[in-house]
Amino acid sequence: MVLLMLSKEEVLKIAQLARLELSPEEVVFFQNRLGRVLDYMKELNGVKLEAAATVRHVPEDAEPFREDVVEEAFDREAIMRNAPALDEGGFSLPAILESE
Amino acid sequence: MTDLNNKYEAVIGLEVHAQLLTKSKMFCSCANQFGAAINANICPVCTGQPGALPAVNRQAIELGVRAAMALNCQIRNESIFARKNYFYPDLPKGYQISQYEKPFCEKGSLTVRLKSGEQKQFGITRIHFEEDAGKNVHASHGTVVNLNRAGVPLIEIVSEPDMRTSHEAGQYLRALHSILQFGDICDGNMEQGNFRCDANISVRKRGDSKFGTKVELKNINSFRFVEKAIEYEIERQIDLVEKGEPIRQQTRTWNSSKNITELMREKESAHDYRYFPDPDLAPLVISEAWIKSIRSQMPEMPSQVLARFQKDYALSEYDAGVLTATKELASFYEQTAAQSKNPKASANWVANELLGRLNAAGKEIANSPVKAQQLGDLVTRIDQGEISGKIAKTVFEEMFLTGRNPAEIIKEKGLVQISDTGAIEVAIDKVIAANPSQVADYKAGKVKLLGFFVGQVMKETQGQANPGMVNELVKKKLD
After folding, report:
1. Residues of chain B neighbouring A66 (CB-CB closer than 8 A)
2. Residue range A9-17: average pLDDT?
3. Residue A100 reports pLDDT greater than 50
4. Closest C-alpha to B57, from B196, B185, B186, B151
5. What is the DSSP annotation of B297-334?
6. What are the residue ranges in chain B where pLDDT is below 50?
């Protein structure tokens, strides 16, 4: 199998989109690792699927809808406890600066 | 700019986000409610807790399908929810559930009336479902996130780039707003951000088929501001082209105190949202049977109400148009007419007196101090001869200022019309005695003086005499 390699720039772009900081060693590691994922996708693309019907991940007759009713779903305090900091009931963050 | 406006044309496309009028959110049972205490309406689903699963709100789908029908769209029986991935503090999951490749409907149209009287049809590219994000409140010491709005159901309505002027864009928005309101799809409250508009604008030389570089205008919260912002933007762009400067792809916003558009951000690179089908959600199946049932419960659309007002109440197209500008106004008028049993007079009172007065006071029909039943009652009192039309205006003014019932005001101020023959005759005798020369002239053939005598009698009775009766009795006395 020919091993695909991602360029350093491609790995850094993906890391930026995922807001991950990678060390130079990790960049090399992911050039290889993500290449292997793409290789596997290539292999999957070779599978002949024309004859098979669309496979759903839920049964056809599953009722996927919820009625429009308001319910107390959860203890709100439990969710608020996950916040690193609160400010009068809001999740408190450092000021947001726009950046790409 | 006229010459330049002949040389160039603008290409405008609009994207409208409309919050759906559901009780609960799109994918969880939290209340869809504006103005609740901060983070009062949150749960594991809308705050993106690991393992929480979304469940589609049936009513949200029905409201979206209503919009699709009202906008003549082709509905897909099976569409897909997709994840739009980006990072922002108001988006707890790190993705927004939206629809991408296969929206639930496409290829619609909206026909609007322009001020020239001409009707013009604009294409609707697509409508898709998505969830709203939360709100970041920026404070001096940092940012506070309120997730009450996170997960509120939205439809995004994307138009074709079919509009050429700010007026066309404004009329498209007004018509769309009205359809969503009449359909009980969205309440249309623009101050609360329940109906939001973004506009894409570019200019090109007339006759060119290629589009120019587009600028996106965001976060404009009134129709008038959208029109002004587009006008400004068209001139700004033509000016740049004339100077030979490039138009940069930017996102701009309207500054309503300076009357200019301002730069929000430059588009450095295309956003990379990495859309993919949401594996937590089954394909959205909208069957023909469901579509049929939604169609059968479709509320009356503005164009239908307009036609009905003309037909049932014998209103002019103009009056019917004024009274169907918003759903609240149409319903206010219908209640007034039902109360008064005089649709024509009710139309005049609502369209002229009430709207004029509201306008002057900077109020909306929803907060009118005069209620429909009260106004209907006033019209009835004129029709029954209790007060004259002129006195009614005084009563109306008092109603508007105090919110009190007409009966109370008429009684308290002693404004009841004098329809008592005896009392009117007393006043007439007085006027005749005081004006002997006019009486002589009248008898000599100057019948035009009748108006003078009627006027004097009305003055004598402080405008409270029944004018019809005065007319008749004066003639009888003098002839």
Report:
1. 24, 27, 29, 55-58
2. 91
3. no
4. B151
5. TPPPPHHHHHHHHHHHS---HHHHHHHTSSHHHHHHHH
6. none
Query: Which chain B residues have a beta carbon less than 8 Å from that of A64?
Result: 55-56, 281-282, 284-285
Query: What is the number of domains present in chain A?
Result: 1
Segments forming the whole domain that contains residue A30 = 8-45
| pLDDT tens string A30-65 | 999 999 999 999 888 888 877 666 655 555 555 579
Residue B267: closest CA among chain A residues belongs to which residue? A100
Query: Which CATH number fits the domain that encloses residue A20?
Result: 1.10.20.60
Sequence ranges of the domains in chain B: 2-290, 300-412, 421-478
What are the CA-CA distances from residue B367 to residues B267, B328, B332 (Å)? 42, 10, 11
Task: Determine the residue among B38, B143, B184, B290 to mutate to test chain A binding: the one whose Cβ has the most chain A Cβ atoms within 10 Å.
Answer: B143
What is the predicted pLDDT for the residue at B458?
A: 83
Q: HEC string of B207-252? A: CCCCCCCCEEEEEECCHHHHHHHHHHHHHHHHHHHHCCCCCCCEEE
Does the distance separating the beta carbons of B44 and A73 come in below 8 Å? yes
Q: What is the ipTM of this complex?
A: 0.82
Closest CA of chain A from B80, distance in Å: 12
The tokens for B122 are 């604009």
**Strand duo B56-57 + B284-285: pairing:** unpaired
Choose among A64, A69, A92: nearest Cβ to B142.
A92
B19 touches chain A (CB under 8 A): no
Does A11 or B472 have the greater pLDDT score? A11
CATH number of B421-478: 1.10.10.410
Searching chain B, which residue's CA lies closest to the CA of residue A54? B283
Measured between alpha carbons, how far is B18 from B401 in angstroms, rounded to an integer?
A: 35
Radius of gyration of chain B (CA): 30
Nearest CA in chain A to B268: A100
DSSP element (H, E) containing A92: strand A90-93
Find chain B residues with C-beta within 8 A of A17's C-beta: 85, 272, 274
pLDDT reported for residue A49 = 76
CB contact under 8 A, B38 and A68: no
Question: Greater confidence, B317 or A98?
Answer: B317
* pLDDT value of position B185: 97
